[in-house]
Here is the input.
Amino acid sequence: MKPLELFPPTLEAARARIAAVRPADYARSRNALEGAVTRLSPYITHGFVSLPEVLAGVAARYRLDVQHKFVFELGWREYFHHVWQHRGERILHSLQGGPLPERVYAREMPADIRQARTGVTAIDQAVRALYTTGYLHNHARMWLASYVVHLRKVHWRAGADWMVAHLLDGDLASNHLSWQWVAGTGSHKPYLFNADNVARYAPLSWHSAGSMIDTSYEALDAIARSPRPISVRPLDEGVDEPQSSSQPPHGAAPEAADVGGRDVWLIHPWALGEPPADLAAGCLNVAWWPSEHHAAWPWGAARWCFVAARMSALAKLQWHGSHQQLAQALAAARSVHTPADEHVGALLPPDVNPRPALRLFAEVDRPCASFSAWWNLATRGLRQLSDLPGLQALVERGSAGALFDPAAIVVTPTLANDSADCSGRTSS
Ligand SMILES: Cc1cc2nc3c(=O)[nH]c(=O)nc-3n(C[C@H](O)[C@H](O)[C@H](O)COP(=O)(O)OP(=O)(O)OC[C@H]3O[C@@H](n4cnc5c(N)ncnc54)[C@H](O)[C@@H]3O)c2cc1C
Here is the structure.
């Protein structure tokens, strides 16, 4: 299925995904490639829906505990953004030493991996799925990253930069910090997997018996700690890597005349939700593609189309330009408000008023080096799901949206009684 068939770029599609979440099935099967995962990530990354809106939509139909697996996984996204907020651009570099010195790892992604012809079926399938759908299941992302870093000795940063360019949900915090988690520069040990693990969680067409990953964890650990890459016998036939580009499909240079004397709601690629209800009457929606960001982080065609389609539904006026061009044009506006986001934070002119993003969990002021440390602080003192600050904020704002009744978060009809499973990130 093509990316935009799988992920229609509309709010209705995002809401339908939320309505389809089955938390008990999710908790039971999320590690399996064909398990009941939500595929909400492109909509969350691009701000069609916030984490509180996602959880409120699910909580209106199912009784969930704060420690439910689904809530826990939403927590991973917020944790990675917590790290980004505290560490800034340093997340793009190794947070700590990994199993081997940095110089051991190559800085280029090998052609056979990029072309899905490594000969390791699970890896080649993962690369093909990434290119055709713009999405990969979490387990497949972990396998791919582990193979790239620990078996092929490619630096995690090269792999992360390559993968993020092809994902519809590419998010610098979740992507680059997950690669570091796999590499062992953001966790205590390298993440490793073998053919048995693939056979347990993936369909038959991914199974990789007889390949170089068909070995024990002890052998894989020794490989991960040895500076020598494994020897490979790439296949002759593969696929072409889709091209990435820094140019949005449309967007004119910012013009002061477009916004002179107007109140402006500034939309950007990570803020594609409904504009807030309390904006000034006659407020003008203006969409902005920040050229500095796009020059540094090119996207595949599907992602441009995914974001552009939703932007067009929100704003007739679309600009593509640098932060200086934006500042000059917006100086003519009466007021400018925008949703805050780390992607554009440093690029916003000083006169623009960022509205803080709606967080699901309590803000943790102290930087946390591990997810569990953050989770303990972020959920401290919570007795029930409705105590989560993001859900409370939605109820207070009365902006819970069409999907659910805010009162239902507090007085929840019990359709399923899910048990907590907080045993770890995956059962690999
Ligand atoms: C190497 C690697 C790269 C990744 N790159 C990205 C990325 O660029 N963007 C991205 O959004 N996620 C990334 N992830 C995290 C995770 O794989 C995806 O969020 C998840 O697979 C998206 O699919 P889903 O919406 O069906 O997830 P579900 O399992 O249905 O989870 C629902 C939502 O919870 C959040 N979530 C779930 N698991 C995680 C997790 N482990 N880490 C962070 N958030 C999570 C996501 O917002 C997700 O949409 C990466 C993971 C790895 C191992």
Q: What stands out?
A: The radius of gyration is 22 Å. The first strand starts at residue 244 and ends at 245. Residues 406-428 have pLDDT under 50 and may be disordered.
